[in-house]
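sanity check this fold:
=====
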Amino acid sequence: QVQLVESGGGLVQPGGSLRLSCAASRFTFSIVAMGWYRQAPGKQRELVATITSGGRTNYRTSVKGRFIISRDNAKNTVYLQMNSLKPEDTAVYYCHVEYTNNWGQGTQVTVSS
């Protein structure tokens, strides 16, 4: 019974920053790859970033240099630091255990003036 609890979403102005957190429980967090995905209205869900159990990261092209995914295994938490936010980053962001069907509930990020 995997549980993923997200926090940190909200409204931010273009150029601003947010940090999303995903607290995981009920499984051995340290041995799995984690990811952040997002879905905008009327669009397909898309990969934002992943991080392996060993800390290797991967990002979609549009967020490279702006977003940073990280993990703290002692806290069973994965983070997404989002900088230089753009209106096109507006979406519901989901935490995910890679290679499974385990998803967080989603948290809204809105980038608008």
Q: What stands out?
A: The CA atoms of residues 6 and 63 lie 20 Å apart. DSSP finds no helices and eleven strands in the chain.
